Give the backbone structure.
Amino acid sequence: MKLLAIGTVAFDAIETPFGKTDKILGGAATYIALAASKLKAEVNIVSVVGGDFPGSYLDMMVQNNIGIEGIKVIEEGKTFFWAGKYHIDMNNRDTLITELNVLENFDPVIPEEQKKSEIVMLGNLHPAVQLSVIEQMEEKPKLTILDTMDFWMNSTWDLLMEVIAKVDVITINDAEARQLSGEFSLVKAAQKIQEMGPKVVVIKKGEHGALLFNERKIFFAPALPLEDVFDPTGAGDTFAGGFAGYLAETGDLSFENMKKAIIVGSALASFSVEKFGTEKLQELQSKEFEIRLNEFKNLTEYSYDI
């Protein structure tokens, strides 16, 4: 299946307790596409960058079999830029700079040959942009996945509800699930969110793993305990990209296969945090990936005789 990823392709400047960077490659769509490219899915990006965006980054995407026809370059503009500083626990961060630049007037245009993509991954953007993408698809995708955040819940509630009603899967963190549903219990929260439209709810819990809900069925995937975590930026997008990419690769959208997709997404996210930005995803080799997937299997596999 073809996977279409919509989101930011951006510059990030990151500071953690373990170091800091100047401007490096970032953006939700970048992480999503790089993660999906580690599988055998055909993935294309729709985004916008400025004339300051290096051609070498676009070349790297092409080398990773990522379609970039949908990335619009506005030569006279500047690329979206975000700078942040993480606290010692790495779960909290302060945003230091946000420069929307060309993203401020982003009007996505889906290339004709991608309007029939079977899976659409709507990265974290203004709900009006996400809605525009949904409306441009020539055929209803077999699966539409939405990522969103508390900012849009606070500022564009009605529009966000319109988008949520049109998607099949939503991926949010535990705090956002509680805010969206008004429920503290994540089980009740997932049930409330399913009533809004999505048949499947994925609740990300960072270093504590992820929960998958479909009707009354629940699956939990742990996060791999790591010796070193350098940069959690983009981990959630990497997770979503791995999840969507595995479903696109296998063409199986059943709940049982989504369980495997959750593990694949978690494994890729565990690589993403080991270096700054997208560096680890760019250099990740298939053998490393296979070893990491086995580590996840060993993490939870056990026998129990009654």
The chain has a mean pLDDT of 94.
